[in-house]
Amino acid sequence: MNLLIVYGTTEGQTRKIAERMATDIRGRRHQVELLDSARFTPDLKLGHFDAFIIAASVHQEHHQEAVTTFVFAHHDLLSGKPSALVSVSLSAALDGHEAAAQKYVDRFVSVTGWQPRMTLLLGGALRFTKYDYFQEQFVKFVVMKGEDPGPGQDHEFTDWNALAGFTDRFLATIG
Ligand SMILES: Cc1cc2nc3c(=O)[nH]c(=O)nc-3n(C[C@H](O)[C@H](O)[C@H](O)COP(=O)(O)O)c2cc1C
């Protein structure tokens, strides 16, 4: 099988997630190409791929615009082949915030018209040491609703075992 992973990342965590999936897929003896949504090439031949994984992170309640545009433009092709969505957010990792994480996905599906075969809501990372004032305030007060982020400045919430299990299950659906 030949898979394409298209990812959108703002601070780098989703790139790390996409790269981990690619490593796992190659370990299962499939071919895989990684494409950063910020670097689309018009000559990319999507018809060459047997299955697709879209991975994008959430900022201010939305996935990256470049990913949304790509999926909207190709939703028929994506819906006609095995395809999966990995939605990376803080809400996916925080107790009591699952509904918000699901809401981002529901909106993405409704805006793009694509119905992924499988979806994973996956925790991302907090990088307070890299945020500017606005980013820090937004994460603390809008996303975390004033909850104490804890003493550590930066924290990775990504459940790598859940990701590996998801990748395996998706590969099992495409044979
Ligand atoms: C400015 C900013 C806004 C964010 N907005 C949201 C949000 O609305 N909902 C959410 O669940 N997570 C939000 N997050 C958390 C990100 O989804 C999380 O940090 C993720 O790991 C980012 O992935 P990336 O490094 O691939 O861009 C936000 C993060 C930042 C820095």
From TrEMBL:
<dbReference type="InterPro" id="IPR008254">
    <property type="entry name" value="Flavodoxin/NO_synth"/>
</dbReference>
<keyword id="KW-0288">FMN</keyword>
<dbReference type="InterPro" id="IPR029039">
    <property type="entry name" value="Flavoprotein-like_sf"/>
</dbReference>
<dbReference type="GO" id="GO:0070819">
    <property type="term" value="F:menaquinone-dependent protoporphyrinogen oxidase activity"/>
</dbReference>
<dbReference type="GO" id="GO:0006783">
    <property type="term" value="P:heme biosynthetic process"/>
</dbReference>
<dbReference type="Pfam" id="PF12724">
    <property type="entry name" value="Flavodoxin_5"/>
</dbReference>
<dbReference type="InterPro" id="IPR052200">
    <property type="entry name" value="Protoporphyrinogen_IX_DH"/>
</dbReference>
<protein>
    <submittedName>
        <fullName>Protoporphyrinogen oxidase</fullName>
    </submittedName>
</protein>
<feature type="domain" description="Flavodoxin-like">
    <location>
        <begin position="3"/>
        <end position="165"/>
    </location>
</feature>
<dbReference type="GO" id="GO:0010181">
    <property type="term" value="F:FMN binding"/>
</dbReference>
<keyword id="KW-0285">Flavoprotein</keyword>
<dbReference type="InterPro" id="IPR026816">
    <property type="entry name" value="Flavodoxin_dom"/>
</dbReference>
